[in-house]
């Protein structure tokens, strides 16, 4: 019966698609290409009245296969993509964007720019809200390529010195690229989202032409506008900008405080801790200790010499002054059940001593202050240091023996 025929046909298509996916998972790109060809042929023979929209599936699978296939060429890839553009107008701009990415990955910058320019001039009926966003992405990436051209021209001028070169075609081209890039980059970063690369490029343009206030406003908006998703990089860019322009420590600390709340393990926590330790305000020094303890909760910091140096310096100052010992106790109470095994085991002591003597010293000092002279880490490292006749390890041993563990 016709119903049974349609049912069998549908099953055969599903089986064929499963073979394609299986071949892709096993990285058998030639086999995957063959099955995809069969799948496309089966769709062409599908006379059912069901509403089927397989074009996006074919586009995504086909793109991946051609990208990975050892015998595929750029000509074949471009030919396939051009066919995909005509399969569904709703996906036209997405396909254009992916085509541009592929061209860029293969170093074909001019071709990518041309592709984006053609996509920008595309129109089909009334533009929907989704198409409007996609068009802005097209314009934004074209703006990035304009920024790339501007950067190239800028470097040429800087190599020869800017003075006396006002009439050079290179400078005129540079200013032309600046105007085109600035317009498109400025538009995209108004839309709530994560636009790290676009923001960095736009700020670079503004800084080069001396528009520091506008650059500051852009970065502040990107970091603090509640409509934008929480983004640690936004605060990093603002911090780097403020530091670059010699802003006050108060401003820098304010930015890093928010970054600490979002990502307590960020590498800038070293800078944050250093600034807080130097502060005359007790509240900030207290925060500094909290910051370094929180950073060392993460495995990525276990062998960070700078971090352990910050920790050792601050806890040593507290122990010597005998003031604010309660700060250390408060931080240690929530960690005493797991830090000894996490940071201060005999195995780690042996490995650290063999790999980095400075790291061993800093960690041994902290272990001695927190756990006392019977700490496995402290005992092993201090013994090895004294055996190697390193003076600072003998001083370390005397210091820990003199002071009771916190």
UniProtKB/TrEMBL annotation:
It holds the Pfam family TAF1_subA. GO terms for cellular component: RNA polymerase I transcription regulator complex. Coiled coil: none annotated. It comes from the Eukaryota. GO terms for biological process: transcription by RNA polymerase I. PANTHER family: TATA BOX-BINDING PROTEIN ASSOCIATED FACTOR RNA POLYMERASE I SUBUNIT A, TATA BOX-BINDING PROTEIN-ASSOCIATED FACTOR RNA POLYMERASE I SUBUNIT A. This is TAF1A polymerase. It comes from Bucco capensis.
């Amino acid at each position: 019966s016709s119903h049974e025929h349609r049912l069998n046909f549908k099953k055969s298509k599903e089986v064929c698609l499963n073979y394609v996916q299986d071949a892709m998972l096993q990285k058998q790109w030639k086999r995957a290409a063959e099955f995809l060809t069969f799948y496309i042929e089966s769709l062409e023979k599908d006379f059912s009245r069901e509403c089927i929209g397989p074009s996006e599936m074919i586009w995504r699978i086909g793109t991946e296969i051609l990208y990975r296939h050892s015998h595929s060429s750029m000509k074949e890839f471009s030919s396939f993509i051009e066919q995909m553009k005509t399969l569904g107008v709703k996906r036209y701009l997405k396909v254009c964007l992916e085509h541009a990415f592929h061209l860029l990955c293969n170093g074909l910058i001019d071709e990518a720019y041309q592709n984006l320019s053609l996509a920008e001039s595309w129109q089909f009926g009334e533009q929907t809200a989704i198409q409007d966003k996609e068009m802005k992405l097209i314009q934004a990436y074209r703006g990035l390529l304009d920024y790339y051209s501007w950067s190239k021209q800028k470097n040429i001028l800087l190599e020869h010195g800017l003075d006396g070169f006002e009439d050079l075609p290179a400078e005129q081209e540079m200013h032309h690229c600046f105007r085109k890039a600035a317009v498109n980059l400025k538009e995209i970063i108004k839309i709530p989202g994560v636009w790290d690369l676009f923001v960095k490029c736009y700020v670079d343009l503004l800084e080069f032409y001396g528009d520091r206030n506008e650059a500051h406003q852009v970065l502040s908006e990107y970091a603090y506008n509640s409509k934008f998703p929480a983004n640690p990089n936004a605060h990093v860019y603002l911090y780097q900008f403020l530091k670059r322009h010699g802003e006050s420590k108060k401003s820098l600390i304010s930015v890093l405080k928010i970054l600490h709340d979002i990502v307590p393990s960020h590498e800038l926590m070293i800078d944050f801790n250093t600034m807080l330790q130097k502060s005359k305000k007790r509240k900030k020094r207290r925060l500094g200790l909290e910051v370094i303890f929180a950073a060392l909760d993460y495995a990525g910091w276990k062998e960070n010499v700078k971090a352990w140096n910050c920790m050792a310096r601050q806890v040593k100052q507290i122990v010597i002054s005998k003031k604010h010992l309660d700060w250390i106790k408060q931080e240690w109470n929530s960690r005493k059940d797991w830090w000894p095994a996490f940071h201060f085991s005999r195995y780690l002591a042996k490995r650290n001593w063999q790999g980095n003597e400075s790291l061993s010293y800093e960690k041994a000092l902290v272990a001695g202050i927190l756990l006392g002279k019977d700490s496995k880490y402290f005992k092993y490292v201090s013994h090895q240091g004294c055996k190697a006749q390193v003076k600072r390890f003998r001083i370390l041993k005397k210091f820990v023996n003199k002071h009771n563990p916190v």
